[in-house]
User: Which sequence fits this backbone?
């Protein structure tokens, strides 16, 4: 298995790209994962797992869009040059 | 006169390097992890390969003069404290053993050394990422340092080296698989006991408080320890 640091970096980049392209109103609201949801809290925990996942997705989308553009450009140029 | 000048220049040069180096790597913390002696290394290796009978798994805490809690005791005085000496040696030895195995097959290439080292580092990095994400999702306050996690997750290379060496010396067969399963289980158990204090921070008196959050954390811990066997399977060649 050609697993190494470079491959791991590519895997992480693709996963974060996938999270970043999720559309808020076309997809997440449809399946009930929009951010401003559920003011009625879940029983014992203050923050359940689902709430945290929703927050993480929206944080990734807000924060990482612009750095992701830059990283993607760098990776594309690298792949074009070095094949 | 000339020697004084040279000594002065050397002192200034080292001071400049220290200033710039300390910004990147936290030296006193690293020094704590490399503060080992021979007795600790031997006992820790024995513990990694036979952790079933060891009884107190808590780390000792140093106390300052006013009785407040300082940091943890260094590995020299506490066998339960994670160190970085064994992990560094284990990863280097793992890369060398990989080279040895491919050399015995006759297909050695110096590129392979880099590939196996990179795989080892990538797996440790991925485990650390997985643990941090899991702690975020389960609201576990994460107090241990990242160096602790690096140390804990690199201990499995000791088991991998052991399995590879037996495979090298006595050929592949069912006995090397037995040794692989045994070392996998012992490292999994070791990690279970050691990470328990990182992931379940409440001092548990017993399974009396079995609320779903605690059960989820226990499952998470079991998954971490169980995945060690999977990673070891991929790292053995």
Assistant:
């Amino acid at each position: 298995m050609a697993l190494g640091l470079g491959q791991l970096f590519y895997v992480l980049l693709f996963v974060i790209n996938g999270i970043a392209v999720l559309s808020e109103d076309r997809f997440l609201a449809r399946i009930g994962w929009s951010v401003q949801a559920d003011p009625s809290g879940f029983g014992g925990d203050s923050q359940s797992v689902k709430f945290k996942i929703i927050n993480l997705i929206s944080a990734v989308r807000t924060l990482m869009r612009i750095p992701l553009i830059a990283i993607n450009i760098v990776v594309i140029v690298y792949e074009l040059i070095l094949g | 006169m000339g020697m004084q000048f040279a000594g002065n220049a050397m002192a200034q040069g080292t001071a400049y390097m220290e200033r710039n180096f300390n910004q990147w790597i936290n030296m006193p913390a690293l020094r704590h992890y490399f503060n080992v002696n021979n007795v600790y290394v031997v006992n820790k290796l024995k513990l990694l390969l036979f952790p079933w009978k060891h009884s107190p798994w808590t780390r000792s805490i140093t106390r300052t003069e006013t009785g407040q809690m300082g940091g943890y005791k260094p590995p020299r005085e506490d066998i339960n404290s994670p160190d970085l000496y064994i992990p560094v040696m284990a990863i280097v030895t793992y890369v060398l053993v990989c080279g040895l195995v491919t050399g015995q097959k006759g297909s050695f290439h110096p590129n392979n050394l880099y590939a196996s080292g990179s795989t080892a580092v990538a797996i440790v990095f991925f485990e650390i990422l997985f643990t941090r994400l899991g702690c975020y999702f389960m609201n576990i306050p994460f107090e241990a340092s990242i160096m602790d996690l690096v140390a804990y997750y690199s201990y499995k290379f000791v088991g991998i080296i052991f399995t590879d060496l037996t495979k090298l010396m006595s050929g592949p067969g069912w006995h090397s698989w037995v040794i692989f399963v045994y070392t996998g289980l012992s490292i999994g158990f070791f990690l279970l006991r050691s990470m328990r204090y990182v992931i379940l921070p409440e001092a548990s008196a017993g399974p009396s408080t079995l609320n779903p959050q605690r059960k989820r954390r226990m499952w998470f811990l079991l998954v971490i320890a169980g995945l060690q066997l999977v990673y070891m399977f991929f790292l053995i060649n």
Summary: The first helix of chain B runs from residue 2 to 24. Chain B has nine helices and two strands. Chain B touches chain A through 18 residues (CB under 8 Å).
